[in-house]
Amino acid sequence: MAVAVMEALMIFIVSCLCVFLILHLIKFFNKVWWNPIRIQSAMRAQGMKGPPYRFLHGNTKEIYNMRSEIMSSPMELSHQMLARIQPHVYSWIKLYGMNFLSWYGPQAQLVITEPELIKEVLSNKDGAYPKSVIQNYAEKLLGDGLVLSQGKKWLKMRKLAIQAFHAESLKGTIPAMIVSVEAMLDRWRQEGVKEIEVFQEFKVLTSEIISRAAFRSSYLEGKNIFDMLTRMALIVGRNNYKVGISGIKKFFKTRDDIESEKLDRGIRDCMLKVIKRREEVMMGTEPDGYGSDFLGLLLKAYHENDKTKKISIDDLIDECKTFYVAGHETTTSSLTWTLLFLAIHTDWQNRAREEVLQIFGQKNPCPDSIGRLKTMTMIVNESLRLYPPVFNLTREVKREVKLGKLIVPAKMTICLSVLALHNNPQIWGEDAHLFKPERFAGGVAEATKNNATAFLPFGLGPRSCVGLNFALSEIKIALSMILQHYRFTLSPSYVHSPEHILTISPRYGLQILFEALEEHILLAAMASPVFYFSSCMFLCIVIILVKFFHKVWWTPIRIQSSMKSQGIKGPSYRFLHGNTKEIVSMISKIRSSPKELLHHAFPVIQPHIYSWIKLYGMNFLQWHGPQAQLIITEPGLIKEILINKDRAYPKAKPPSFLKKLLGDGLAMSEGAKWLKMRKLANHTFHGGSLKNMIPAMISSSEIMLERWRHYESKEIDVFLEFKVLTSEIISKTAFGSSYLEGQHIFDMLTRMAHIISGNSYRIRIPGIGFFLKTSDEIEAENLEATIRNSFMKMMKKREQEAMLGDIDGYGNDFFGFLLEAYHDSDKTKKISVDDLIDECKTFFVGGQETTSSSLTWTVLLLAIHTDWQDKARNEVLELFGQQNPSQDSIAKLKIMTMVINESLRLYSPIVAVTRRVEREIKMGKITVPANMEVIISPLAVHQNPEIWGEDVHLFKPERFAEGLAKATNNNIAAFFPFGLGTRNCVGMSFSITETKVALSMILQRYRFTLSPTYAHCPVEVLTMCPQHGVQVILQPYEPKLGRKRHVSGKLDRYGHDFFGQLLKACHDEDKSKKISVDHLIR
Hints:
Strands 1-2-7-4 form a 4-stranded mixed beta sheet. The radius of gyration is 37 Å and the shape is globular. With 1082 residues, it is of the alpha+beta class. One of its GO terms (cellular component) is membrane. It comes from Salix viminalis.
C-alpha cells in the first residue's frame, strides 16, 4: 500500500515538473520566436521594413560586427558621425527608409528618424511613450534616478532638479566653475607643456565643477567615486549589444556581472559616506539645515516629514549617481569636441576670442554677460549638432497606438536617432557634415526653420535634460577663460577615432598644441626706444657670428694642424661642409655603377674610408661638417676605445634624426641611466627568458614558410620576407602582440630610417633649424609624435589588461618589464614614460634591422654556395630531423655557426661604431683633443687581409671551424659584428638564435638558388641591406629517410610528434597499449 502511494506521488511530482518545464518552454519560444515573427509580419504589412529577425540575438550580431569593423581603425578628419557611431542606422536607412524595424535580441525596436514622428513621440501628450525600462549594467550605473524613473516618482525628482537648476541657483554655481577652470589653467602654466591631452583635462575639470557646485567638495575627495563610475561606464559600453538568455544570470555570472555588482556596492558605500559627512557637518549650521546645493536639497527631501515630498535613501543615492554621470560625461564630451573644432578652424577661434575679450576683457566671465556670447553660442550649437552628447533616445510603447499612419503594438521599443536627425541633408543642406556655425547666426529657430525636433542634443519635451543650462554655462565659461589665455591648434599626434561609451568621446584623447598669449611682453617691446632695440640686435648678431666662425673655421683649422703635427693626416677641411661633399660624391658614384657579385662590401658601403686608408694610413682624420672625426681601423686602438676602461670614450651625441628614431634609449644613453636600462635588458635576454622566446620564433617562421608554399619553384624576395618575420618575432616575444597590430609602427620606423639615411651627410648651418625646417624635419617630427602616440596606446592597453587581471602583473615579456619599472615605487629603479617609449623604439629598430639584414645575407651566401647549404642542411636534419629546433640542440649547430659568422664578417650589420672623446686623452701615441668623434669601421677590420689572409673577400666558413679565438688569433677586436665591450649589443644571443631557428626551418623544407634577376647592390640604411632585395628560387626539399628521423645523432624510429606517437602505439608489443591501423587512420 505504502509503495503504491509513493509511486503515485512520484508520478505526480514528475508530471508537475514536466508541465512546469513545458509551460516555460512555451513562454520562452513565444518570446524569442513566435512574438518577433508575428510583429515582423504585422509591421511589414504596414510597409515598415527592416533587417530580418534572427533567432534569439535579433540583429545584435550584425550591429556588433558593423561597429567592430568601423571601430577597428581611425577615420579621416571628417565629422560624419552617423556612419561612425551608428553604422547600422546609417546603412539601414539607405536600405529600408527613414523609419525601419530592427531587433535587440527578441525585443522589437522601431527606429524613427522623421522629425514629425519624433516630435509626436517626445511630446508624449497622452502618456503612451514612457521611458524604456533599462536593466542590468545601465541600471547599476544610474539607478532609478531622474533619467530612468517613471510616473509620480519622476515628477517628484524632476521638481527637485528644477529647484537645483533654476536661474538663481545656477548663478550661484558660476564662481565654483570659474575657480575650477582657474585651477586647470594654473596647472597648464606650471607644467609649461605645449601639447596637452584636453579630453582627460576636461574630465577632471567637469568632475571638479560637479564636486564643488553640487556637493561642496573637490574632485580629489570624490575621485574614487568618479573612477568607479568610469569603470562602470566602460562595462556598459562594451555590453551594449550583447544579448543574454533570460534568467541565466541567476545561475551564471560573467566577469562584468561580478565587477559591476562590486562597483555598485562600492559606489553606494562612498555615496553614503558623503551623505553622512554632510549630515554631520551641516546639521544646525545652515538656515535650511543641509545646504542649498543639489546634495542639500536631496537631504532635505530625505528628512522631509511630508510623505508626498519625502524620498528614500535609495532615491537619494540614485540621484547623486545620475548627476555625477550625466553632468560629467555630457559636458566633457561637448567641451572636447568644441575645442577640436576651434583648433581646426582658427578663424572661428579668433572670432570667438575677439567676442570674449570685447565682453569680458581679461576679467573672469560674469553671469549677466554670458548670455551675450552670440558667436560662442553659434559654435557650441554647431558642435552639439555634429557631436551630440545624447545621440540616441529610447521610449517604450505603453499600449497599442497609432503613430502617424502606423499602428504600433504595445511593449515595442522606439529608438530615436539624434545623429540621423542632425545629419539629415533635407534639414541642414548638402553640407550637413561640415562645421558651419553660421547656420545658427539667427538662432536655433531660424536654423531649424521652426522645427523643434530638428535639433535636440539634450532631448525634447518634459523629459529633456534638466541640467541643460548648467552644462552650457560650464562650457561657455571654460572656453572663454581658455580663449583669454591661449591660442591653440590641433597636434599632429591626434588620431581621429570617435567612439561611443556613454557619450561620443575620442578613443585616443584630443591632443592640442597651446601657445600662451603674452600681450604684456609685446606692449613692453613696443614701448622700448628704437636705438636700444637696434643696439641689442646688433650685439646679438655679432656674438652669434663670432661663435659661428669659431666653430666652423677656427676650431677645425686648429685641430687639423694639431693632428698633422702628430702624423695623423687626412683630407683637407672645407669650410662649413668639411668632407661631406666628397663622401657623398664617392657614394653616389659607386652606387650608380654596376657591381659584380663579389663579397667585398667595404669599398661599396664606405668608399671614402676604403680610399683614404690607402692615401693616409690605417688611422686618419676626416670632417663631418665642422666636426672632426678620427677614423680608427687598427685592432689594438679599437680594443682600447671599445673596452673603455677609464670611461674616456662615451657614446657620441646622435644626429637629430637618429635621436628622433631611437630617443635616449639603451643604444644612446649614458651613465646611471644606461646602467639601469642595461640591467632591464639583461633581465629580458638572459638564458631562461631567451628559451621561452623560441616557441614564438618557431611559430613566426612556420607562418612565413606556410606563405612560401605559394612560391615553390618560383622566385621570392627573402629580404622583404625576413623584415616581416623579424617584425613578427619582435611583436610576439617582446610586446605580446603580432606584426599586423604593430605594422603601422614598423612602417613609420622604416620611413624614419630612410630619412636618416638620406640625411647622413647633409650639413646645415647651426641654429637654422629654429627658423627654417626642411620637409624631412617636418615629416620626422610628425613621425616621432605619431610613433610616441602609438606606443602610449600600447602602454594604456597593457595597463588596462593588468588592471582587469587579464595578465599576470604587467606581463613577462620585455614590454611588461618596462611597465613594471615605470610603475616601480623605488625611485632608483623607476623609469619615466619617455624612457619606456625610447626603449620600445630601440628594440623595435635594433631587433628588426640587424636580424633581417643578417638573415638576408646568410641566405644569399648559401644560395650561391650550395655545397655549404647542403652541409648546413645535413647538420640540421641530423640534429632535428623534421622536428622543430629545440633550445638544447641549437647550440650544437657548429656548421651553421661557422656560416653565420662568415656572413657577419663579410656583411656586418653594424658598419660604423661612433664614440666621443670626453676629455683630452692619450690614445696610443696620439694626443686626442676633447669633443672629437672617433669612428670605428668594422668593415675595414673584417676585410683586412693582414688579419684574415689574402682570400679575405671570399666566403670561407671554415675560417671559424675551430671557433672565434682561433679564427682571430685571439684578437677580440678582429671580429665584432655586434660591437665589443660593455656597450656591445645586448640582444646578440636573441638575434643569433632567431637566425639559427629561421635558417634551420628553411633548410628542412627547401633548397634554394640565386635568381638570375638578383642585382648585387649593398647599401647602408641603418644596417647593410640589399638595395634591390635578394631574389632566390625555392625548390621543395624531399627528405630521403621517409618517416624515420635522426635526432641528436641517434635513430628514432617514429618521431616525437602526434603521428609518431600513433605509430609507436600501433607497433607496441603490449596489447593493452597497442592500437589497430584502423584506429590510427581514424
